[in-house]
Amino acid sequence: MARGTAGGGMPKFFKQYLIVTGGLGFLAVAMPGLVIIGFFMLIIPGLILSFAPTAFLWGCAYAVAYWLARSRLGPKWVALGAVPLTAAILCAIPLPSILMAQAKLARYHLDPVVAARPIRPTGDVRLDRTTQSSGCDNQCLALLFEPGVRSVTVNNTRETSFAQIRDGLAPLTQYARTFRLMSNGQCAAGDQKTEISGGYFGKTREDNRAMAAEWKARLTSEFCLSSSLPIARYDLLLRSGAWRASDEPGERTSADYAEIRTGANRLLMRVFNLRTSSLQAPLNIAFTGGIENFRPGWGRSQWPRGVSNSWEAPGHELDAALAVRRSADQA
Predict the structure, then answer these.
(1) For the whole model, what pTM was predicted?
(2) Using one digit for the tens of pLDDT, what is the confidence trace for 218-277?
(3) Which residues have CB under 8 Å from 262's CB, separation 6+?
(4) Rounded Cα gap, residues 26 and 20, in angstroms
(5) Over the stretch 27-62, which tens digit does the pLDDT of each residue have?
(6) CB neighbours (10 Å) of residue 223?
(7) Which end of the chain is less packed: N or C, by CB atoms within 10 Å?
(8) CA–CA dist 225, 198 (Å, integer)
(9) 144-179 as b/e, with b when 16 or more CB fall inside 10 Å?
C-alpha cells in the first residue's frame, strides 16, 4: 500500500491540498475584491487567489477520478491513472454546452456577401441602424450630398430580429423620418435643424473637416434640410447594428452586422459576425467584469474562434463598399 494512504484512501498531502485550495477558493469567491487587491499589491497573490477556485474544482474532480480508478488499478498505479480520468471528466462536462454552441452557429449562420463592385447610392436611401440617435447626422448628410440621392430615411430601431436580417425585412419605426435637401426658402419653419460635427466618408480627418465645412456653407447659401414623415419605399437599404438572440438567457448569442440591399431586396453586400459561447474545456472558474462588478463564474469560450469583437467593423466594411466622395476636392 502506498505511503500516506489507508485502505486505498487519498494521500495525506492531497487532503491538505484540498483544504488549502478550498479555503483560498472560498475567500476568492466570497470576496472577489481580495483578488483585485492581490493583483494591485504584488500580482502573484492575485494570481493565486484567482486560480484557487479552479484548483479546488480540479482537485475535487481528481478525487472522484481517484475513487473510480482504485477499483480497477492497484495502489501503485491509482494516483497516476486518475490523472487522464480527471482530464476526461473536466472535458466531458462542458461537451453538451460546446455542442449547443455549435448548433447555434449553424442555426444563425448567414453567408457573407462581398460587393461585386463599389455601390453608388442613388434615389431614395433607407438608413437602418440599431442606435438611439435621431435626426440627420453626418452619415445622413454625407448621403444627401451625393449626386443622385433624392432622400435619406433614417430608421433607428432598438432591435432587429434575425428573421428581418435574414429575409431583408425593414419595417419602419414610429421615430423614422425622411430627410431631403431643398432649395433655400422651400423648407418649413418647423423643419429639424442638424448639427454638423464633421464629415463622414473621408479618407482622413482633414478630408472630413473639409467636407463638413462645405456642407455648412451650402446649407447656408444654397440648401436647407427638410424633414417629413418617412416614405415606405427605398431604392437602397443600408443597414448596420447589433443583434442579440432574444430567446436566450444572458444573451450569449449575438452578432454585429451590416448589409446593403436594393429596393427589390437583392442582397449586394453583407457582413454578419456571429458569435456565441460555451463552457470552457477543461471546466474552470474564471473572474470577469470590471472593478465595480468583478465576479467569479464558469470559464467560457467564444465560438467561432477568431471572430472580430469590434462592433464597428461591419459598419466600416459597409462604408468601404460604397462609391461615395472620400475627399472635398473629389468630383
Answers:
(1) 0.84
(2) 988 999 999 999 999 999 999 999 999 877 765 589 999 999 999 999 999 999 999 999
(3) 235, 236, 237, 268
(4) 10
(5) 999 999 888 888 887 788 889 999 999 999 999 999
(6) 18
(7) C
(8) 17
(9) bbbeebebbbbbbbeebebebbeebebebeeebbbb
